[in-house]
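Forum > Structural Biology > Help requests

Title: Can anyone predict the 3D structure of DUF2642 domain-containing protein?

Hi all, first post here. I have the sequence for DUF2642 domain-containing protein but no way to get a structure on my laptop. I'd be grateful if someone could post the structure tokens.
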Amino acid sequence: MLEALKGQEVSVNFVDGSSVRGGVLEEIDERFVKYRTEYQVLYIPITSIRAVAVETKERERPRVGFGQ
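Reply #1:
Sure, ran it for you. Structure tokens for DUF2642 domain-containing protein below:
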């Protein structure tokens, strides 16, 4: 399943509630995922991943203020 996301920019959510985003899945095997961001390379155990999310569309920010 993760093989289909190889080379794409994804966000990874972990079992402990933390997350990383803005990186690319580079390599995937049965035990680890290699995830590269601009600043670091992470080798993430598959067992610590809760979810992997791909942003397909950028969210519109709500307008703030009193302008019309």
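Strands lie at 9-14, 19-28, 32-36, 41-45, 49-53. The chain has a mean pLDDT of 89.
Shout if anything looks off.
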